[in-house]
Amino acid sequence: MYGKAFAPEYQGALTTLSVNSSLTDVLAAGTEQLRAAERAGKPGEAARSGLAVAEAHRRLGRVEDADRAWKASYRAARRAEDVAAMAWALWSGGTLARQRGAFRLARRLLQLAADLGEKGGDMVVRGYSLAGLAETGRIQGDYEAVGRLHEQLLAEARRRGEARHTVWALEGIAQIHRNTGDYDTAYALFEESAEIAARADDRRGHAWALRGLADVVSVRDGDTERALELLSEAEATCRAMRLSSALAYNHKMRGNVLYRAGRYAEARALYEQALAEFREMSEPRGEALSRLGLAKSLARLGRDRAETAAELSELAGTLERIGLQHARKMVARAYDELGISDAGLAEARVAEVAR
Length: 355
Known about the structure:
The chain has 355 residues and is mostly helical. The protein has helices spanning 23-39, 43-59, 63-79, 83-99, 103-119, 123-140, 143-160, 163-179, 183-200, 203-221, 224-241, 244-260, 264-280, 284-300, 305-322, 325-338, 343-354. The longest helix is centred in the middle third of the chain and has 19 residues, at 203-221. The radius of gyration is 21 Å and the shape is globular.
């Protein structure tokens, strides 16, 4: 049995906030409590209120504000000699670094957060930080290295009855299966995560699960309309909670679904929309994936083959620098799919080695 989902990153005076609270409400409440704590000279409370402020900014796509906020939270926690609060601030910073495509920094901050969480006796932040490390590796495509960690964290979450973390782990494992072609297992895991999230009232987790289900329904079953229905349901949640990053990924996935259905003009419009959203929040992974979808759509709509080849070549180099192995393979497959010579791919590899 799983209890109702909760948000351990909302701490101190903000523990009454729900996991489903609008991010604008979280930001307003967090800012108010942060200022009150600073006026009262309470660095411990300032650190914990500042954590909520950092997370709200990050999820709203305001990366510069989020960067300042988590660092301020860490400094306040250090002044208060609150090791657990220091760990939470580092977790926020590491999560932001991953969102920005700085994977090496993300791993360093998340490992420090896990170590400090254990030292401070806060096993929740330790678990969140290890989950962050696992997700970083998964996003980069290092499935063998992080698959076992995902399974370990899933077992721990199930044992404790933590719905939110169970949902996260199931979705991560499902994504690995989806990316390696095991669509049936991926669907079953996304379906289970959606059910647990719904029962636990974890609307964010439910929206991500619906996105995963839509992807599998599209690629495995070719059921375009059902996939679009699932994405529309997820989008409603993203808009209600102001989940900017999740919304952009939803739009990018809608582009994928339409592209697979041969509706290239509609796909192009969605990829363009997602690309603008990712650029606004400085999220390089989403930007690169949207560019890839847009390049493929434009090619199908008659774009000059040389221009498409140049675009794919540039994307190959970009993904190499970011360190996204799975996405890098997607570019390689695009050459074959579009019937374009992969000479540009070889050139990108040579250029990357020369750097």
